[in-house]
Amino acid sequence: MAMTEKRTNGHVVPFEVLEMKMERPVKIVYPRRRIPSIMHFQSEAVRLETYGTKWPSKNVSKEDLARSGFVYSHKTDQVKCFFCKGQIACWEAGDDVDVEHKKSYRNCPLANGKSAVNIPKDGKEFEKINQYILNQLDEAEPPTNRTKYQTDAKAIADKAIPSKFEEFVNKNKRIASFENAPACLPKAAVMAEAGFFYSQFADLAQCYCCGGGIINWASDEDPKAVHDALYPKCALAEKDETHEEEEPVINASGEKRKRKISLEEIKQDLLNFPWIRNVRGIYSDEVIGDALCEDLATYGTLPYTVDQVYEIVDDYESRQ
């Protein structure tokens, strides 16, 4: 097992759209593709989606990698930790993912057991929160992308369209962002023309205008068509009056998505997260729960610092 700098070759398995007969004709999209922001990788279940059907190694499992904080970089067996940004490749038989992670990146907050905004996939206390987040990703209008441009985006000069990522309004900058992108993505110029820049995580490309992200690409896809189908409400999207939402969506585990989870069902689970417990006693549980539920409904992710928890709750209380 070695660090990623030694890994140069890529391995691409074409993305597949499968047709299947159930009780009624259903188009199965496999695996999940819509990831509105990098912050969704705080969820182990979402990290697992980046592997899709493409994980090439039998030496370590994609489930263990996702649990340890890694997303799949779509370059041979290279993975990248969402929490420390550490990269590992060339996995060998017998490797323990957690041991190698901690050995290579001693300061990773997840690998060394320190506080990290990780939402585990397993465990009864996390099940409903994970399901709520995954349900949001499957909605016709996914959650808002939490960025610093959320409220103060300027108008784009040529089309007067507000942009979530102003630094990528320039097409040449979008093209440059794909310099180290995996080979499974369409050509940089084509991606940039469709409004995409590369996020530097997995094969996640995001639209500079709406902020919407897409994973599990195939190199021969039409990025404009994919963008417009998954983010039809983006100002850059060409409207297709004949487009119908395809349901149900099948996730990377091959399971039909479960029933929708209400915010009221997960309110108590949110209060029990370690980095949220710090504000209990300062604010009432009712205010904290309502504030976090409102924030989760808007962004689809959890606050990733204690300071952000304070800001969210304080802002909510001031508006009541």
From TrEMBL:
One of its GO terms (biological process) is regulation of cell cycle. SUPFAM superfamilies: Inhibitor of apoptosis (IAP) repeat (SSF57924). GO terms for cellular component: cytoplasm; nucleus. Gene3D superfamilies: Inhibitor Of Apoptosis Protein (2mihbC-IAP-1), Chain A (1.10.1170.10). It comes from the Eukaryota. GO terms for molecular function: cysteine-type endopeptidase inhibitor activity involved in apoptotic process. InterPro entries: BIR_rpt, IAP. Pfam families: BIR (PF00653). SMART domains: BIR. PANTHER family: DEATH-ASSOCIATED INHIBITOR OF APOPTOSIS 2, INHIBITOR OF APOPTOSIS. This is Baculoviral IAP repeat-containing protein 7-A. It comes from Hyalella azteca.
